[in-house]
Write a structure and sequence with these properties.
Distance between the termini: 42 Å
Largest sheet: none
Number of domains: 1
Strand content: under 5%
Number of strands: 0
Number of helices: 10
Helix content: over 70%
Radius of gyration: 17 Å
Length: about 250
């Protein structure tokens, strides 16, 4: 396999995307998918490639978060089980139906979630309000993640934080559950979609695996309020940019 300029560019993209994802609990898939889409790759190929790479990056990230104790077992099962089922369904749908039509609804949800997190960042953190989310969160996040080529952490992490969970545990638990979701989505694509660009997968995972333990260390030492502000700004920015691009494309 010839290592082209595109390959090394994607290594850098994978590293940067995993640093953001591991430290803030989101945006690896969205960042990588956005870049691959600008290269003209179809949505199904983009999602298949990103999730195959995420099997490795989220695996390393999950182990790192467990080592630094950024993990809540009760939250994990609430997210992972429905996420695996819905993610597989989403991958099968994307293999047969274009996923672009659902993007406006994703961006609108993320914009609201980002603004809610920013609101909570400037209020007193009330631990008694923390509650485990229902299975619907993991299911919705898994399905939309597979359809959109990313977005698991962007949906789960701000929702958990908005409900009152400490950012450290919301981020670490979301990242750990994401491994099982990414694995199920990648396996579904393997059997339902003809996809052979394994060079793209290798480039993304190389950058991501190197960044994962560094990002997990950062998560343990970042202040909760600062983490919430960064998460809120990241989600709001991504959602606003996505909506603007959709509007410009439609006009």
């Amino acid at each position: 396999m010839e290592l082209t300029q595109e390959f090394w560019t994607l290594v850098a993209v994978g590293f940067a995307a995993q640093m953001v994802d591991g430290a803030l609990g989101m945006a690896y898939g969205l960042s990588a998918s956005a870049f691959l889409s600008t290269l003209g790759h179809p949505p199904a190929l983009v999602s298949a490639t990103v999730h195959a790479a995420e099997v490795f990056t989220t695996g390393v990230s999950g182990i790192s978060h467990a080592y630094f104790r950024n993990f809540d077992r009760r939250l994990f099962f609430k997210l992972a089980v429905p996420g695996v089922i819905a993610g597989s369904l989403g991958a099968y749908v994307l293999s047969n139906v274009p996923g672009e039509r659902i993007r406006p609804f994703i961006w609108i949800y993320l914009l609201g979630a980002g603004l809610l997190v920013l609101r909570r960042a400037f209020r007193k953190f009330e631990h008694e309000l923390a509650r485990t989310p229902g299975f619907a969160l993991g299911g919705a996040a898994g399905f939309l993640d597979a359809i959109g080529g990313g977005g698991w952490g962007t949906i789960t992490t701000p929702t958990l934080i908005a409900q009152g969970h400490r950012p450290r545990y919301a981020i670490g638990t979301s990242n750990t559950a994401e491994f099982f979701v990414a694995l199920s989505v990648a396996i579904t694509f393997f059997f339902s979609y003809d996809w052979r660009r394994f060079d793209l997968v290798l480039a993304l995972l190389l950058g991501g695996v190197v960044a994962a333990p560094v990002a997990a260390y950062v998560t343990k030492h970042i202040a909760p309020r600062l983490a919430m502000i960064l998460v809120g700004l990241a989600v709001t920015g991504l959602a606003t940019n996505g909506l603007v691009r959709l509007l410009l494309k439609a006009s």
